[in-house]
Amino acid sequence: MKALIVDDERLARNELRRLLENFPKIEIIGEAANAEEALDLVDKLHPDLLFLDIQMPGKTGFELLTEIEGSVPDVIFTTAYDEYALKAFEYNALDYLLKPIDPNRLAEAINRLEEDIRHEEFKRENAKLLTAEDQVFVKDGEKCWFVKLGKIRLFESMGNYVRLHFDDQKPLILKSLNALDEKLDPHSFFRANRKHIINLQWVEKIEPWFSGGLLVTLKGGEKIEISRRQAIRFKDMMSL
User: For the chain, how are helix, strand and coil distributed in percent, rounded to 5?
Assistant: First the structure.
């Protein structure tokens, strides 16, 4: 389990690193003093877990999580403030530890993390990725469709919902884009940015875009930006 410590206080980072020495399954692969440093490290090191402070100079820990593209690591918040606890769990936090961190509470959080990992591994082993050939049932209000995934050219995040684009239809389903990303076959569907997953079979044109990104035009007419970070992954995946 690769972990990243994100905290603007050096002493707090050192103390947490010392406490984590008692948990050999947790490998600290890096530290960041603010959200910008953390974003770069998440992109380069792909941690499984963040020990994340909330109040930091510049962006908060919450803002950091909204800017991570692709799969978001598991999160254990570490903070001196108890008033953010409810908001923290809106971000699917595994736990919320108050400073100074109690070793027993840290052990509880790590045990919960290990249980969640075992549960997720079991689900992955018994789950089948959805391919372009699979058909899914979609219901939006009074309307229903039984549509082949290969016909869906774009998945667009709309808060807690995802809008599907197929034919001339754009129904909403109650599901997060992250949850869909885990279920869709990556050979057919690509996470272009925080808000969009595109069907690679529907890509009509690709152009260079700002800051090292790409602009993809789909056969349905939609223009979707592939962010700089995802553009690197896209080029690696699609190149010979």
Answer: 35, 30, 35
Q: Which CATH class is domain 135-238?
A: mainly beta
Q: Scan for tokens 């925080």, then name that residue.
A: 194
Residue with the two structure tokens 């100079």: 57
Q: Specify the CATH superfamily of domain 2-125.
A: Response regulator (3.40.50.2300)
Q: Which residues of 27-39 are buried (b: 16+ CB within 10 A; e: fewer)?
A: ebbbbbbbbebbb
3-state secondary structure of 3: strand
d(CA 136, CA 233): 28
pTM for this prediction:
0.61
- pLDDT for 238 equals 84
d(CA 216, CA 222): 8
Instruction: At 235, list the tokens.
Output: 């080029």
Per-residue model confidence (pLDDT) at position 215:
96
